[in-house]
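Data availability (excerpt). The following record was deposited with the supplementary files.
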Amino acid sequence: MLEATGIKEIIKPENLVYRKTNIMTDNTLSYCPGCGHGTAHRILAEVIDEEGIQSKTIGVSPVGCSVLMYNYLDVDIQEAAHGRAPAVATAIKRLLPDRFVFTYQGDGDLAAIGTAETIHACNRGENILIVFINNGIYGMTGGQMAPTTLPGMKSSTSPYGRDVKTMGNPLKMTEIVATLPGTYFVTRQSVHTSANVKKTKKAIRKAVQYQMLGKGTCFIEIVSNCPSGWRMTPVQSNKWMEENMFPYYPLGDIKTPKE
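Predicted structure:
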């Protein structure tokens, strides 16, 4: 009910465009303007709220931009050492099998120091959801080259661009884990437009429901921008992402349940 000018107006449900989920706290997000982390947090929170699993959800966030996730989501969250989130999530899920357990990791964390943990958790088919934010760079620590940095892409440690002859090719982690027998649902999405947000939210909802079936690991990559690390405005970074990241990391489902 609004009383701004002394006139009371009732907001009818059919006129309501958006209401912030209670799973998101009122703390101000620390992410850079234009970053996709905030949107990814929001849709995760909305799915948890809509599925009614707040009291049964446990998230795991390691080192990186995601480390402060506990400030923004009102669910139980356990921090993990750099790259070790899948191992921590494995322990939690095995001890508390009735919980919905997810990790939230960046590419520098998951695809570098955490490569082994990720591969083995997926190969074992642990009943967890791994949310993988791929912006092709180490966002928090200074914009260094990551395992996902594109060929020719400049960073603070590859100022002339990534040279595949000396620095190797970018890792396509989502395609790699899709080949493992333990993964049940593997997809790559984004959050840079409203249409893509809807697709990502649908994927997260599927992953929540699939986890309850105990069929294996769900893996969702979210290709995102890093305006600060890329030295671009948010608008420029989204355009650059569409023109450069998506051709190398194409969006869409990679592995879906046969049934």
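Summary of structural features: Confidence is low (pLDDT under 50) at residues 1-5.
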